[in-house]
Description:
By secondary structure, the protein is α+β, with helices and mostly antiparallel strands. The chain folds into 2 domains: 3-170 and 346-355, Diaminopimelate Epimerase, Chain A, domain 1 (Roll); 186-334, Diaminopimelate Epimerase, Chain A, domain 1. It has helices spanning 3-6, 32-43, 98-101, 104-110, 218-222, 225-241, 283-293, and strands at residues 8-15, 18-24, 63-69, 77-84, 91-92, 120-127, 132-139, 163-168, 186-188, 191-197, 201-206, 254-259, 267-272, 313-318, 321-330, 337-345, 347-355. It has a 17-stranded mixed beta sheet that branches. Strand 9 and strand 10 form a beta hairpin. The model has no long low-confidence stretch (mean pLDDT 95).
Amino acid sequence: MSYDDTGLRCTMLRGGTSRGLYFEAADLPADPAQRDELLLRLMGTPDPRQIDGLGGGTSLTSKVAVVSRSTHPDADIDYLFLQLGVDTATVSDRQNCGNILAGVGPFAVERGLVPAGVDETSVRIRMVNSDSVAVATFPTPGGRPEYRGDVAIAGVPATAAPIVLAFTDTEGSATGSLLPTGSVRDSIDGVDVTCVDNGMPVIVARAESFGLTGHEPHERLAADAALLERIDALRIKAGALMGLGDVSRSSVPKTTLVAAACDGGQVCTRSFIPVQPHTAIGVLAAVSVVTGLLLPGAVGHELTADWPAGHSQVDVEHPTGHLLVDVTVDAEASPPRVLRSGVVRTARKLFDGTAFPRA
């Protein structure tokens, strides 16, 4: 089959604060190398503008979800996330994406892969990247996904219907351990860090360790070449400590700098994906960061001193607003254990049709 001539069916959705192309696995080449080559041509990579493809010139809009019915006894749907490069021809499956995950349930219902409930539907989604399961619950009045609603999330200009994501078994998603270095705190190049993986491998450091307040605007961080070089050097060394090997060309781990809240939240974050600063913070990155902060002895744990006892929801500030995550940790267990984690997102279908790759 020549996809150049026939194209292939594709749905574009905004999931959370990301945008991606959603495909049924059966519509893509079975061979991963051929699949990746096709997706790069569809996205318009490599090109910093992605002018000849469907990408938007940023890592947040160069994402792909590959969806199929699951044979796993605890799941309805399999979801493989692929992060495509923008100006480099890379395709990575080394991490999940909680934002793109928000669109998987509605997409599966739209395509008839799972039946819809009369008013509401819950879809058990196996995140293939980490072999863990998330449950997405969203409104389906009359048996169809409803994208319209009154839930606002930071980084998205309009409101939409809520999609509740509950995560299970996300500990060690990419590294095999919640604390992949074996320690709650490490020192790298004189910077204290906590390396944690609860759905996304993350390095947590205090912003002040980099001479920052942690409240800097995105543009200032993006223009600080010396800072980005330090972040990358730290990330590469931490990746080796976390058992991820050489991460110099990998999209994980992410680095998040934390500071005291300044806008009514509970903690302020500045996240890097993996080197360029994020305009917000990824869903699973935020879950992992909060998980780390809840551990006594971890970098930034002192910021939790005033958090309300017995309340699992945490308001995470980022450059463009807030993200509310729900995390409960048994910090007394050895090793520490995650009891619950989740988040509220939204999604919207942008188009469904035929996509044609560039030559």
